[in-house]
Amino acid sequence: YVTLRFFPLDIITFHLFSGSFADEDIGRQKTTVSSAVGNATSSKGLEVAISNLQEYCNELENRLLARFDAATQKRDLTRMGEYAKILSQFNRGTSAMQHYVGLRPMFDVEVMNADAKLVLGDEGAQPSPSNVAKGLSSMFKEITDTVRKEAATIAAVFPSPKDVMSILVQRVLEDRVPKLLEKLLQKPSLVNPPPMEEGGLVLYLRLLAVAYEKTQEFSKDLRSVGCGDLDVEGLTESLFLPHKDIYVECEQASLKQLYKAKMDELRTENQLSSESSGTIGRSKGASMALSNPEISVAVVTEFVRWNEEATSRCSLFSLQPATLAASVKVVFTCLLDQVSQYITGGLERARDGLTEAAALREKHLLGTSVSRRVAAAAASAAENAAAAGESSFRSFMLAVQRCGSSVAILQQYFVNSLSRLLLPVDGAHAASSEEMATAMSRAENVACKGLQQCIETVMAEVERLLSTEQKATDYRSPDDGIIPDHRPTSACACVVAYLSRVLESAFTGLEGLNKQAFLTELGNRLHKALLNHWQKLTFNPSGGLRLKRDITEYGEFVRSFNAPQIDEKFEQLGIIANVFIVAPESLGPLFEGTPSIKKDAQRFIQLRDDYKSAKLASRLSSLWH
Fold first, then answer.
1. What is the reported pTM?
2. Residue 19 resides in a domain
3. Do 303 and 430 belong to one domain?
4. Helix residue ranges per DSSP H, 318-371
5. Which domain holds residue 364?
6. Which residue from 11, 142, 417, 462 has the fewest beta carbons nearer than 10 Å?
């Protein structure tokens, strides 16, 4: 018989072997065969003894656990400690520690259901990130307070409190928190994402970010309370691995979904606006307006805000600089695609207005052999086409201005918010910069084509005004001694007034090199158009003076272009106009020292009304050759 005594329990005796020690003495006197049989019998008896001992230990442990539970119910820390000390001899106390943790009320089903209601709200209601954040904060605070209270009890009861705290916190992070996250974060399908009416992918991402951030804070609180040797940070991170595996793809899909929803919204607004104004369906431009809404800086700012939000989530989920840079680059590429597509579409729509105005002008061009009635109708239609051209010019310049502002916002966002995230990784910043330039190049190409159309629109109206307002007698005033008219001609006044009015939007809509190139090209085209126009007229000395007055008017206007080469061209026109004023014998020395304008001067001399009568061709032939 073997006697075991566990204080404060009663003495417990149990029978280990069915034989006695005397049997062993008898066994030693047996033959070899008998010894073998005896050994087999002893081995079998030992197995039975071990089995009996194990059963007894299990029974004893269960009885101790029952008494431990009873003491726990009474909050009798002294008795709990005594039983816990004895139970620590059984499997190092693991069963006792797990048993204690498993029976904590904080893991009851009712408590976990209350967690879901606190965080998610009423069943079937769409959770909002702000409410979820508040709910998680309350829930995690309650759990932390409970764990802190349990820590005090555990320290007073268990011989190895750190081990118990490790089991307790592990149970929290493997049972209570995951069950809530399963209800809160349901991985969406990227093929058939949830519709925007139900929050879309962005709602899932916002809830994911809130849950991740709050759970990270919670893990730090648990660490401060105490969790033994448990890797609480790693365990917390593992809760979100299934979601982080598809995170970047989900951000891409979400940004595309947001963009599509925004474009649908803008098209609906445009359609309602067109229907209310009665303009829908009148032209190709109406359909283009629906597919490519006007550029709005506010919309581009919204694109950037989406991207900024997505980038903040990248920073939250990406722990390594290389991973963060890769995620940021993917998200930024989405923004580049959105801005490029949006502003390019807006510029294309504005270009269509210019194209329609050009078609109207072509439609009403008439020959010279028409009746007055037809000519009057055509003139009225031409004026309407000119008004359409002026309106489309302003619309395009406004689109270019908004396009420039949008690109500036994009560049500022890249410099202020993304550069610091990309620079730590070799080549990441340069690659994104190049990608941004490439994405904007398409819009730049459309803008350049549109600006060329703007020049064509302006010059078409200038030529129309010159042809309709310029009278053949404007530069052939009679030399009757009456004081000459020093005012600009009606044609000149109309052209300058038109240019001043229409180019106002160009001065405000264009900047830098774009503005300089546009105005320089327009100045060259205006100079050429005036030369061609004057080639159709004849001039006497009084008309020459009036021409110089017109040239001065044009020159003063183009000076606002800040293009020195254009100023020089109009100054030379003023010099050339002297060929109409001086006497025939003074023409020879007029251009000495200025050989560069002799060719234009020769053509102008032929426009003098006395060119033939004064036989200027033969008189000046020796000067030009």
1. 0.80
2. no
3. yes
4. 321-363
5. 292-450
6. 11
